[in-house]
Amino acid sequence: MEHIISVLVENKFGVLARVAGLFSARGYNIESLSVAPTLDPTTSMITIVTVGDDRIVEQIIKQLNKVVEVMKVTDLTEADHLDRETALIKINTNTKPEHRDEAVRICDIFRAKIVDSSPTTYTLEITGDTDKVEALINLLEPLGIKDLIRTGRIAIAREAAKAVSRHNSQPAKA
Amino acid sequence: MKKTGAEIFVESLKQEGVDVVFGIPGGVVLKIFDVLHQQKDVEVILTRHEQGAAHMAEGYAKATGKAGVCLVTSGPGMTNIVTGLADAFMDSVPLVAFTGQVSTNLIGNDAFQEADNVGISRPCTKHNVLVKDVNDLARTIKEAFYIATTGRPGPVLVDIPKDVSTDKADFKYPDKVNLRGYNPTYEGNKHQIKQAAEEIIKARKPVIYVGGGAVFSDASDEILELAELTQIPVTMTLMGLGSFPGTHPLSMGMLGMHGSYWSNMAMHHADLLIAVGARFDDRVTGKLSDFSPAARVVHIDIDPTSITKNVHAHIPIVGDVRTVLKQLNVILRSLDGNVNERKQQVRPWLNQIEEWKRDHPFKYEQDDKAIKPQYVLEKLFEMTKNEGIVATDVGQHQMWAAQYFKGKKPRTFITSGGLGTMGFGFPAALGAQRAYPDKLVMCITSEGSFQMNLQELATAAIYKLPVKIIMLNNGFHGMVRQWQDLFYEGRYASSDLGKIPDFIKLADAYGIPGWRADKPADVESVIKEGLKYKGPALLDFQIYPFENCYPMIPAGGAHHEMVLEDPPELKSGTAKKKNVEEEEGELPA
Fold this sequence. Notes:
- Chain A has two domains: 2-78, Alpha-Beta Plaits, CATH 3.30.70.260; 82-155, 2-Layer Sandwich (Alpha-Beta Plaits).
- Residues 163-174 of chain A have low confidence and may be disordered.
- Chain A is built from five helices and nine strands.
- Chain A is of the alpha+beta class.
- Chain A is elongated.
- In chain A, strands 5, 6, 7, 8 and 9 form a five-stranded antiparallel sheet that branches. A four-stranded antiparallel sheet of chain A has the order 2-3-1-4, covered by helices on one side.
- Helix content of chain A is 30%, strand content 39%.
- The N and C termini of chain A lie far apart (41 Å).
- Chain B folds into three domains: 2-170, Thiamin diphosphate (ThDP)-binding fold, Pyr/PP domains (Rossmann fold, 3-Layer(aba) Sandwich), CATH 3.40.50; 190-359, TPP-binding domain (Rossmann fold); 373-584, Rossmann fold (3-Layer(aba) Sandwich).
- Chain B is built from 25 helices and 20 strands.
- Chain B has a six-stranded parallel sheet, with helices on both faces. A six-stranded parallel sheet of chain B has the order 11-10-9-12-13-14, with helices on both faces. In chain B, strands 16-15-17-18-20-19 form a six-stranded parallel sheet, with helices on both faces.
- Mean pLDDT of chain B is 95; it is low at 584-589.
- The interface between A and B is medium-sized, with 18 and 18 residues.
């Protein structure tokens, strides 16, 4: 199954290679990867999306914990979480005359933004979960997608209070 | 006063208590060797190949428990130690490898003797670092030794560019390390330990299964106490040999592919396994789906990745083996004061094991014509009273040595387990001998393994390291030939090594004396001569070349499916064997 793994690491060279190496050494592909510094500039958060056998992923998570520069590993798939990705999509608008209007309409429905415009193209920016991004891509495909770039997913756990109340059937109020 | 990087390096080694460095100089580490040359506290042992340096450092580390140190140059110097790093990584050996690197302004330029040392070593080190600033050097060295020797030990590589060794900085060796992401667990979870104790008291057919972690953790006393307190028999992995006295009535010796029949049968029929610093390696477990079908598993290990990797642990305990066993023994003592009652409870189990042992002991047939390897080892251990340090290479001789070795102390059986590195034994023996100049150190090897690092004969001769090389010479890659006999219809594809060289003459060229035994009657006198000689010596035992190592769990088999001897068609002689005898009129030496 799919796993979204957050890895909090020292912001140093070579760390990403070590983390990625634990996947490649087991013949596992990383579906998406995002790395950026956290509030503390000496640490970075790596978000990895991978698909694999639970046993192997559990082993990889344990191995990640062993890396000296890794401070914390969370498998967000196990808990309630939010995930988002951004895509920039450059579409052709000159194949048919109505395409330019059609692109704006689709853009509105998805609350995407047009961030660049040329006489023959629009570039759209969309942020959302993977389903939303893919739905938009599917709709835009007939117009002709010239170029597409996706950030890969980032994810964050939902606030714990909600998760607790879900499991706690007794009303908390006295 | 400011010091150069090279001076900081040497001062840091002194602070870490390092007394010997194994290595070979080269362009980018000349400054470091120059500083080492001008002091006496840290000895430099110049090896003949970098791989030798890495294995010597491993042998030193395995014999002492301290970190072994090697120092090599950039490029080929570094790539030559990769086998040593991988070996140390698999067997959890505390090793600190220093490699030279081209100057920081040349890195990535395809400079002369440049290699991406950190990139190449990443998957076979516990940790590695490129030092880019001389101000970071002392701290990095401190961290390297700390990481190599704590938690599950392992190799750490520190890559030092040439300009870092010549640049200057203020020197202050840090008192402690501050690593946010590295904090191994030493204490075991109390609740889990209590549960383990309850399982142990209930068990009728328990087995203690000890691995190399027990050796590194110095847990021998605690294992002895646990075994005697609970009357549970102990089996050891190849890496665990010596952690429990081989002569103790509760010792079952080694388990696994070429382990004792009785220990494997005990594993198969056990109702409780107490795994202590072991990792359920495939050579130990055999077929996983048939592994100890009825057993509950208590698994104590400092490395969480080892737990439930291959075999599910019902009671996982992450922690230092020695610390956890101390905690466990305290609980067991309070729960179970009556040893006699315990003895009654496990008596039928111990009787059963005794019966398995009686039915299928280790065996071989020694006639008066060809020397059997087991005979040599049995004689050797008898004559040395199991007192020396043994380092082995890899193959049949290693398995026979493990079967017949009954050492009483940990760190006296040094071998390459996980990686199975032929060529490990001789340099490792030299490293152990350097650590303990007055102890008897024996390298049990074969002509195939020995030739992979024989250049270190020079190191033995020059540094007067009196290692006794016990060569079981069968003219074959013996274990390969055995598998070819069993699974490839006796076609000896590239396993026949022939009769060269004459090892006695070879040793003589290095000024090392040698003795040869051609027939069983010579064995005792050759061992005696070798042991009597006050220096390195090579003993060449021309053994029966077609002896196979049994018992054996065939690949894909389970513990109870051991093969005990040559199948009938092999006994009558393979085609190849007959050919050899007919053509040459004698067995290959």
